[in-house]
Amino acid sequence: MHRFAKPSVFLKLADTLMPWMIAITVITGGTGLYLGLFWSPADYQQGDTVRIMYIHVPTAWMGLFCYVGMAICGAMSLIWKHPLADIAARATAPVGAMFTALCLITGSLWGEPMWGTWWVWDARLTSMLILLFLYLGYMALVNAFDDPERGSKAGSALALVGVVNVPIVKFSVDWWNTLHQPASVARMDGPSIDPSMLWPLMLMAVAFTGYYFIILAIRVRSELNERRIRALQLSGLFEQGDGTTSGSALYDQGHNAGAGK
Amino acid sequence: MSDYFMMEGYGLYIWSSYAITAVAMVFLLVTSLRGLGQSRIELDQLETLLKSRRPRRSKSRDARP
Amino acid sequence: MNAFMAILRRDMRLALRQGADSVMVVAFFIVTTTLFPFGVGPEANILARIASGVIWVSALLAAMLSLERVFQTDYEDGTLELLTLSPVPLELVVLGKVATHWLTTGLPLIVAAPLMAVMLNMSTDGFGVLIVAMLIGTPTLSLIGAIGAALILGARRGGVLVSLLVLPLYIPVLIFGAGAVEAALLGMPVQAHLQIMGAILLLSLALAPFAAAHAVRQAVE
Amino acid sequence: MNAFMAILRRDMRLALRQGADSVMVVAFFIVTTTLFPFGVGPEANILARIASGVIWVSALLAAMLSLERVFQTDYEDGTLELLTLSPVPLELVVLGKVATHWLTTGLPLIVAAPLMAVMLNMSTDGFGVLIVAMLIGTPTLSLIGAIGAALILGARRGGVLVSLLVLPLYIPVLIFGAGAVEAALLGMPVQAHLQIMGAILLLSLALAPFAAAHAVRQAVE
Amino acid sequence: MTVFTGSDLTCRRGERMVFARLAFTAGPGDAIMLRGRNGAGKSSLLRVMAGLLAPLHGQIFWQGEDIADDMAAHRARLQYLGHQDAVKPVLTVWDNLRLWAELRGIRDVDSEIDRALDALGILHLANTTGRFLSSGQKRRTALARILIGPAQLWLLDEPTVGLDRESSAGLAGLIEKFRGDGGTVIYSTHIDLDITGPKLLDLDEFAIPMMEWLAGAPDDVVPEEGPQAIETPDKEGVSA
Amino acid sequence: MTVFTGSDLTCRRGERMVFARLAFTAGPGDAIMLRGRNGAGKSSLLRVMAGLLAPLHGQIFWQGEDIADDMAAHRARLQYLGHQDAVKPVLTVWDNLRLWAELRGIRDVDSEIDRALDALGILHLANTTGRFLSSGQKRRTALARILIGPAQLWLLDEPTVGLDRESSAGLAGLIEKFRGDGGTVIYSTHIDLDITGPKLLDLDEFAIPMMEWLAGAPDDVVPEEGPQAIETPDKEGVSA
Ligand code: HEM
Ligand SMILES: Nc1ncnc2c1ncn2[C@@H]1O[C@H](COP(=O)(O)OP(=O)(O)OP(=O)(O)O)[C@@H](O)[C@H]1O
Ligand SMILES: Nc1ncnc2c1ncn2[C@@H]1O[C@H](COP(=O)(O)OP(=O)(O)OP(=O)(O)O)[C@@H](O)[C@H]1O
Ligand SMILES: [Mg+2]
Ligand SMILES: [Mg+2]
């Protein structure tokens, strides 16, 4: 496990997979958009607004998926103590937060014409809002430390703890006395969804997943770069601009001990 | 055609949700790529500096007891 | 167990010596609750309607506000690393600190809550359930809060950060706590609410000491 | 004036560098506001009724939470005593810090408030007045808060203490701020409310810098 | 006889390599004195020895057993004194020590604490509140803590800071007594402490030329295997 | 010629009398070195001289004028260095100094800061963030601050803390230069700094035997006139 997750191995793997991921994302995204916007029919009850579903639902799924991914990374960091797991969790958070926010926004944009209101305190909606808060808390925690490694470790622990909340909030739908989802949603929940709608939905979901992995690869790579840059800068080797060094400056340089304390 | 874009009067909702999603995704992609590019440039600079410094440094290190 | 009592005893002594710790938490609770009649207006029926929610939210905020120092001072003066190095399991130490937090925060809040309920015109039917719900709910707040307090050790701006981490995790307690009181006021059965709160308490009792101890170990590295 | 700008510039740079300072305040504001629907229940009309009060109380709490560090970090690392020793009047320095607090706290809250108003089902009639009232009210919060923040320098457990000192002083702002929005929602004139808020602002603008500077001088002794 | 050994120890803090390939051995009655510039890694090494900090690479053994395998046993046998005194300002000296006595499961807490206070010459301060202690008195309270309960290993990080000449000599006496009873002491200090024949361990020798580490492992930003590419010869450290 | 004098100074901190009946005089070009045990009151005296702390009793004069009468003028003429460095971890060295230059109304901020940094040998660190400075580098940043803007009086509280030998010598040179330009320097230190002919002021001599003070004035816990009951002879301190 350790050996496999070595940064260099990961980077090589990411390099070989990258073109494929881009291809899949572009193709599925393009077809999904075409099918969703032109090919699929308007819903007989919701009319054309149903087209919002092709992004609303995949973003919702991605928001949940990314959080679970983060928690899995947290567990891996806890069990195997591998720094790459922390970095991956750290790179996942902004993507997940973005998808969660997009789900909330598109949901609101769908809610206004369908329910006549931007927002209701319905269990499903609020659970999504809490998920966004969990993401924001994670990102705030990770960035609150001077030592980024320590931030990532604390973040992984939080992600793991926070995942307990996800099912709890989701099940609260049964106990929380609430206005329930209007029938228009419940109707769609059934397995009776038409293939003409299912196809673009699935294609968009695949495209979003591909997008997530692309961003993940990019961000992990730049985080690894950042770490090496920090190590180089902390070495104190590059502090003076030109070659003229005073004696004391020379003493400071190049030693691991220069900057601390 | 414009009927199509009107989407039975719901065009504004539909198109703005698509647009917001597209903008957000492109924004995240661009900032991630830019971060990667910048880190690469900076790393390259430091790396070349490191190479150029190396011989001189090890000499001065030897000079010290 | 001996270690647990030792920590509890010392921390309680510290809290009492450090002067009016729980008094301040209660005062914050009262002041926050009192803000609502000013903000919402004095209509008795509106206040009564929102009373249980306001009391729970204020209790959450008050418990949260005192979280920061569960580990912080011990972290800053080096006690925490010595506790990590002591032969007793760190989980027990954490549990001792959680117990102190509850005794100095949760318990006083429970005492003050009925007073605020009267001020907010809550019907007396709900009082019993309010107290029982808080008895089950506030230990959960302390337990979950300890995780947050341990995670922010060494972070910049711990105070605001801990609220961001902990408040979302508090929401289930809030929902069922306020729900139980609401149900009691409407004359409906409250059993289910309280049982779920009990389940959450047991879950956090099982998880929180380990999670917090893990975070503490990371912090003293 | 030069000194004021120097302080403002440095503190803003500090706040921005220190990472997402105002983001956190806004997050706290949003999370706190969100707690109420959980506590009170989701009925739209109840929420709409208490919306302005909840928003104001949350804004008060958010502003207060970030108060502690207006002077605290400068006090702890010795900057504050050097500022006291610098040739510019300390009152100007205090004013610079108040301005920074407002820019990093009050202003972001004003931006976030309408969002929360939407989520709490407040009628859009009140939005304009809400923003105007917050524009007048939040600087007052920063000014009054600075006195509290200066008074608690060096005290243990600043966080809870500052809330106790400051929240009662915030109540007038709360009453008239929430009152103005309420009035606007009922279609009544809001002039009077806003004028009183303006008067409070001017009064605290005249008094707060001197009071806070005095407290700072005592603290660095 | 050696009971406490470490081999091939490499330590990284933050992004910074502190020391590499460090080895040490100590037996009962031995004292090791850590030396080095500020930031050379003395405190880091002591923390590694205490098990507070996991080394990036290398192991530490107590009687042939890796301490990481049984941390509880290691903790029970060691007493650690850090840079910080951990004296609570609102508790009396006596109350401050009581927690540590209770956590070590001492039966006769009272007499044990009194004995420790007496050894440090601060018995008269037993009922003084921490806030009113001078820095030297605080340090002595912290030192009293390590006398409470049985121990086989003392890890002392600059124990003499803040002590006046007399108390320094007293501390040296305590250390000698502990060594006489078969204890092992490892301490760091900038000034000389009057200890007979300590082994010297100069942390500066194990400093990693950052330069070469960085040049040697360009891809290994998060090195798993330690900095293999370093050309510094394997240092032997002190040996019994 | 003497410009800076103090007479009959008594200082109380908290419930504790720190020193009493202290007097000093200094002229342009003079240096006074404060000595004494930890807690003898060196820092307290420097704070009294800076006007941060009001003495319980006694006055301080600058050219015959009580400094308490015109604090603004006193502040404009002095530069103070405390125990703390006041270096913000998130700002660069340059940005850290900029505030102080701006507050002193320096016109050419850039060159003034560069000059100060150069004098301390940390010009190459100008763009380094405070967090990554070693303690010595932090101290030098704090010392650079006192070079910014004109001043007539330097009050330095243990300026050599954290400085290596070389930088200490450099600091001594800066102090000599300042004295040569007619400045007055008052500093406290535990180690010797290479200053030519400083006057010595030993704070231990002015310490109040707490016992006697309490015994002598049983109900005068806040003495108005200073501790009259003490039998220590009236010390003269240093005189020009
Ligand atoms: C801000 C408002 C909204 C939020 C936060 C939201 C959230 C969510 C979430 C989290 C899911 C995924 C649930 C799962 O996979 O278990 C979902 C699915 C869905 N939402 Fe929304 N939603 C919102 C508004 C709406 C509106 C207004 C409609 C339509 C009237 C709608 C229709 C749907 C549909 C049809 C699904 C797919 C259900 C399925 O078959 O799994 N949503 N939404
Ligand atoms: N928590 C930390 N995170 C990152 N780096 C650290 C941390 N603590 C110390 N360092 C760095 O590790 C190096 C070694 O520090 P350490 O405290 O071990 O030095 P030391 O030899 O004890 O110095 P001193 O004599 O000043 O006590 C220093 O360069 C320091 O900057
Ligand atoms: N803020 C304070 N409140 C009360 N007492 C104080 C305060 N600061 C210092 N003291 C006390 O005043 C006395 C003198 O302290 P001061 O800091 O002046 O000593 P010092 O000579 O500078 O010592 P050091 O060499 O340790 O710096 C000490 O006994 C100390 O306990
Ligand atoms: Mg050290
Ligand atoms: Mg001093």
Question: What is the structure about, briefly put?
Answer:
The complex is a heterohexamer, with 1 copy of chain A (261 residues), 1 copy of chain B (65 residues), 2 copies of chain C (221 residues) and 2 copies of chain E (240 residues). With 261 residues, chain A is an all-alpha fold.
Reconstruct the topology from this structure.
The complex is a heterohexamer, with one copy of chain A (261 residues), one copy of chain B (65 residues), two copies of chain C (221 residues) and two copies of chain E (240 residues).
Chain A: H1 7-39, H2 53-80, H3 83-115, H4 123-142, H5 148-162, H6 165-171, H7 183-189, H8 195-234, H9 247-252
Helix pairs in contact in A: 1-8, 2-3, 2-5, 2-8, 3-4, 3-5, 3-8, 4-5
Chain B: H1 2-6, H2 11-63
Chain C: H1 2-17, H2 21-40, H3 44-65, H4 72-76, H5 79-85, H6 90-119, H7 127-151, H8 158-185, H9 191-220
Helix pairs in contact in C: 1-6, 2-3, 2-6, 3-6, 3-7, 3-8, 6-7, 6-9, 7-8, 7-9, 8-9
The complex binds protoporphyrin IX containing FE, adenosine-5'-triphosphate (2 copies) and magnesium ion (2 copies).
Number of strands of chain E: 9
Mean pLDDT of chain E comes to 80
Shape of chain E: globular
CATH class membership of chain E? Alpha Beta
End-to-end gap of chain C: 26 Å
Category by helix and strand content of chain C: mainly alpha
Number of strands of chain C: 0
Distance, first to last CA of chain E: 8 Å
Task: Spell out which ligands are present.
Answer: protoporphyrin IX containing FE, adenosine-5'-triphosphate, magnesium ion
The description of the largest β-sheet of chain E is:
5 strands, parallel
Can you describe this structure?
The complex is a heterohexamer, with one copy of chain A (261 residues), one copy of chain B (65 residues), two copies of chain C (221 residues) and two copies of chain E (240 residues). Chain B is rod-shaped, with a radius of gyration of 27 Å. By secondary structure, chain B is mainly α. Mean pLDDT of chain B is 76; it is low at 55-65. Chain B is built from two helices and no strands. The N and C termini of chain B lie far apart (83 Å). Chain B has a domain at 24-50. By secondary structure, chain C is mainly alpha-helical. The longest helix of chain C has 30 residues, at 90-119. By secondary structure, chain E is of the alpha/beta class. Chain E contains seven helices and nine strands. Chain E has a five-stranded parallel sheet, sandwiched between helices. In chain E, strand 1 and strand 2 (16-26) form a beta hairpin. In chain E, helix 3 (93-103) crosses helix 4 (109-120), helix 3 packs parallel to helix 5 and helix 4 (109-120) crosses helix 5 (135-146). The C-D interface holds C 18, 21, 24-25, 27-28, 31-32, 35-36, 38-41, 46, 49-50, 52-54, 56-57, 60-61, 65-66, 68-69, 156-157, 159-161, 163-164, 167-168, 171, 174-175, 178, 182 and D 18-19, 21, 24-25, 27-28, 31-32, 35-36, 38-41, 46, 49-50, 52-54, 56-57, 60-61, 65-66, 68-69, 156-157, 159-161, 163-164, 167-168, 171, 174-175, 178, 182. The structure holds protoporphyrin IX containing FE (HEM), adenosine-5'-triphosphate (2 copies) and magnesium ion (2 copies).
